[in-house]
Amino acid sequence: MSNKEILSVSEGEILDIEIEEDLLKANRELASANRKILDSCNVKSINVMGSIGSGKTSIIQWLIKELKNKYRIAVIAGDVTTDIDAERVREAGAKSIQINTGRGCHLDALMIRKAVKKLDLKQIDLLFIENVGNLICPADFPLGTHINMVVVSVTEGPYMIIKHPFIVKEANVVVINKIDLADQMEVEIDKLVDDAKKINPLTKTVATSVKENMGLKSLINALEL
Ligand code: MG
Ligand code: ZN
Question: What is the pTM of this model?
Answer without folding.
Answer: 0.90
